Amino acid sequence: MLSPKKVSRLLLSLCLLLVAFTSAKAQSEKPKFHVIAFYTGRNDLAHISFLHEANKWFPKMAKKYNFAYDSTSNWGNMNAAFLSHYQAVIFLDSRPEDPAARAAFQTYMENGGGWIGFHFSAFALTPSEVPANWDWYHNVFLGSGQYVSNTWHPMPAILRVEDPHHPVTKGLPTLWKTQPNEWYRWEKDLRTNPDITILLSIDSTSFPLGTGPKQSEIWHSGYYPVVWTNKNYKMVYMNMGHNDMDYDHHTNKELSHTLDNVEEAKLVINSLFWVAIGKKTAK
Q1: Do the beta carbons of residue 13 and residue 63 sit within 8 Å?
Q2: Pairing between strand 88-91 and 34-38?
Q3: What's the whole-model pTM score?
Q4: What is the pLDDT along the chain (283 residues), one digit of tens a residue?
Q5: How do the residues of the chain divide into helix, strand and coil, expressed in percent and rounded to 5?
Q6: Which listed site, 95, 156, 213, 227, has its alpha carbon 20 to 30 Å from 118?
């Protein structure tokens, strides 16, 4: 039979073990990084469909992969104090318009922050409701310049991995098929920009891409980057993020979801982990 003194020591040891276990468990559950997604939710039902999809999907991935995900439609939060809490920023469907917010985002990226932009976040066209009035973002950071044209109707494409050694493309097959999407063509040829690394492009087996009715909305040939990064920043732009909607019959029913695709989902997770906690790739 243990003496009261030995019982006390045993209880103390058990308490210390419990405290240590609880502390270790808490440490292991601490999020690997924090990400904030910005969105507007005003332009095009297909873009709104995607942002709603993303705002349901990312919290599930946060739980699965142990990161913290927040989202906001308040672009006024694009300031140094707010961004200091996050290792990565996502633009789900648009870009900031306020000069102060733009300056804060540029500083955040130049100081090592991470960024993922989807589809419409790179759009700019003068004249339009989204004019090309942010030189650093469209011409330096993204390198793509203005939007030129797009395919229609939304269709899947076969993508080709252009850089199999980049962390973003790790584990992706050389060729794979996407969900339906509206694909963009850009003003500038990204292949001529030494700061840009094209990660994925549309493979020629995708052509013809689009069904019209306008002939300009059907691509029969050409080179079209879809996912790329700028070597000076931890950033990834991906042209996906436009779900297929039943516009023709005026039901506006969702006909596809971008992140239902295994490869697209892997691409997004790879990108998020790289921009949040990875190292910039060498020039």
Answers
A1: no
A2: parallel
A3: 0.90
A4: 555 555 556 555 554 544 344 444 444 589 999 999 999 999 899 999 999 999 999 999 999 999 999 999 999 999 999 999 999 999 999 999 999 999 999 999 999 999 999 999 999 999 999 999 999 999 999 999 999 999 999 999 999 999 999 999 999 999 999 999 999 999 999 999 999 999 999 999 999 999 999 999 999 999 999 999 999 999 999 999 999 999 999 999 999 999 999 999 999 999 999 999 998 876 6
A5: 40, 20, 40
A6: 213
